[in-house]
Amino acid sequence: MVQPASRAQVDIGDTTVTYLPDGHGWVDPFAFFPSSAPDGWAAHAEFLNSDGRFPVSIGSFLIRTGERVLLVDLGLGPVEYAIPGAVAFRGGELVASLEAEGLAPSDVDTVVFTHLHHDHVGWVSDVSPAPAFPDGGVVTGLTFTGARHLVHEDEWRHWIARPGFPGPDATAVQAPLADRIEFAGDGDEVAPGVRVMATPGHTPGHLSLVVTDPAGHDERRLIVLGDVMHCQVQVVESHWTFRFDVDPDQGLATRERLLKELQRPHTLLAGGHFAGQVFGQVLPPEPRRAWAVLPGVR
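Below the sequence we write its predicted structure tokens.
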């Protein structure tokens, strides 16, 4: 049985990409992957615990390239909650994970959101209680005070009209970012060797990031998926949609397009919700497409 992912790091030339855990969840796989019913998980039982629940990693990707320090998504935040028989989530480790890398929040110059679901924006602001439960809380400001905060414009426009679960909370996320948010679109370079790839479907403005070696010495590229896929099983079961996909059909088309990209030589992936190991690669469909853990991860 696999467990939630722990800290891991890969190098793309002199650029490092590090998975920083914030927390994890255990979920009912059929509730969150309705297309997997009634017995789709029978072939993937190694991903389920004794209660039949599935582990979901929650965290952020730290990208260091030259003098630049970026975070991709901001986890769940310091919160713990459960719905009996369905889900159990906890977060709160991100800042400590960052400090273990020798960095403080003030060292981060850019935050990039793949999208604005609540488990990707939990550390936007300093708030008690945590952003997932803001009623009665006091927002004291942005956690990453000196950073640019980037998102796709379609994503911001979608959620600004629909605050609340599963999207961002108005008090803890949208209000603190109202005068700070900046927009990034398909093909934009947000740091040397780090470009935006539009991957809509899970949400209207969902984006992924493509990381390459800006010096050109390493021919590999790493695609940070966001929530194009929530687990390794979707490499094989690509038709499985996720409960909170805003447009499941578009999400499926995006996933199939991206899986073709991931089958290209020298292409790696980073799946922030993947259990066990977040870094890997997609093997060609011989006889069928498969997931493989990336060797050499530190």
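Residues 248-262 form the longest helix (15 residues).
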